[in-house]
Specification:
Strand content: 35-45%
Shape: flat
Distance between the termini: 89 Å
Largest sheet: 10 strands, antiparallel
Structural class: mainly beta
Number of helices: 2
Length: about 400
């Protein structure tokens, strides 16, 4: 009986000791922290490309109160105020943070804040209600991290679109929403709109939407002899024959070109042995799919690009294993596309050696046959695919 009592006593003693130790362990708790803005944050605010490098605003906040003394990491987030579920935050990852043991602040430029709101799925060109808050994270393992958020600060802001500017080439009698597009190379460019399209004979005008691609109240340009009409004149532009065209517009000089070409094709040392590497193996155009495609034999490990051109006469049919190609005489090159930095992407690449695409395999003078497809239907988003046969 004494032994039983003694054992029970020690068990209770040990339990008591561990209970006391557990009660002293740090326990985190969400006690919140305050976010503040200074006078640099103006609401409502209109952002412009001309003020992109200016300071949009400074935000500073208290150390997050996680209960015991802890060190958190912090990230600024923006939301559309209409996103009541807070489902689509965009986080700032720039260099504007200034966080020390005694202070926490982030400074954003106009361009940086504009980038954040453009990344929201609900971005629009008109005024938006934007909530700004700070996310505090304690712990490096995302599964076990302790997260809490500051109070939100609301700002009303009108941003500028980062979409590529577009124009539509609209056949008289049609609506802009269904017509082919051309696009500039950068959000703030107005001098290098381009696009590939199939046109039918008729008269056309260029329609320019607002920055959010809305053609409700477009600016309309007619033209003649390569010069756009300005000042409200809208003389239609005549396209004489059905066919494939490369269309370019320079709004800085009010110039345009509409250049017909015979086909797009593959050229380069991957297409044939011997001379004539610059002569293209043409692809066929499908008006339904808007794809250029064809079967082409490529020499392994050798280079090629794509070219549009105009030629007269029949294809040259060389001795096997080389394949038929557009003739070298009476041929005019219109454009050359090579690989871009995007996987399977293409861009203008007329400089020799620039943008070369390498046929798969090791160069052993043998060939593989491919179905090649070229999609030029999305201006400034040209792509190609190789499917081995």
């Amino acid at each position: 009986m004494k032994n039983i009592l003694k054992t029970t006593f020690f068990a209770l003693l040990i339990t008591g000791v561990f209970s006391c130790e557990n009660s002293n362990d740090p326990v985190v708790s969400a006690n919140g922290f305050q976010l503040r803005q200074d006078a640099s944050v103006v609401s409502p605010s209109v952002l412009t490309a001309a003020t992109a490098s200016d300071v949009f605003g400074n935000f500073e906040w208290d150390r997050s109160n996680n209960g015991p003394a802890t060190v958190s990491t912090y990230t600024l987030q923006v939301f559309d105020h209409a996103d009541t579920a807070l489902a689509n935050p965009v986080e700032y990852t720039g260099n504007g943070y200034a966080i020390t043991p005694t202070s926490r602040m982030v400074s954003l430029t106009v361009a940086e804040f504009n980038n954040l709101i453009n990344a929201l799925p609900t971005y629009k060109c008109s005024e938006m209600d934007i909530d700004v808050r700070i996310k505090s994270v304690l712990g490096s393992n995302p599964k076990d991290a302790f997260i809490q958020y500051s109070n939100p600060i609301n700002v009303k802001v009108t941003g500028y679109s980062l979409k590529l500017p577009i124009m539509a080439l609209v056949k008289d009698g049609n609506t802009a929403s269904t017509e082919p597009r051309i696009a500039a190379s950068a959000p703030l460019s107005n001098s290098d709109y381009e696009g590939y399209m199939y046109l039918t004979a008729g008269t056309y005008k260029f329609y320019q939407p607002d920055a959010c691609y809305d053609f409700t109240a477009p600016t309309v340009f007619g033209g003649s002899a390569g010069v756009l009409n300005t000042g409200g004149s809208t003389t239609s532009i005549t396209v004489a024959a059905d066919g494939n065209y490369l269309v370019k517009v320079n709004l800085a000089t009010n110039a345009y070109t509409i250049t017909k070409f015979t086909s797009f094709g593959v050229f380069g040392k991957a297409t044939r042995t011997g001379l004539g590497f610059d002569n293209q193996v043409p692809l066929a155009y499908d008006m339904a799919t808007k794809l250029w495609s064809g079967q082409v034999d490529l020499l392994k490990g050798r280079k090629f690009k794509f070219k549009s051109n105009v030629w007269t006469g029949a294809l040259v049919v060389p001795a096997a294993p080389n394949q038929p190609y557009a003739p070298g005489t009476a041929t005019t090159a219109i454009s050359i596309l090579g690989k871009s930095s995007v996987a399977n992407g293409l861009q203008e690449s007329s400089v020799a050696g620039q943008g070369d695409i390498t046929a798969p395999g090791i160069d052993d003078a043998s060939r593989d046959s491919y179905k090649i497809e070229l999609d030029l239907s999305n201006p400034r988003n040209y792509t190609y695919t190789l499917t081995k046969l």
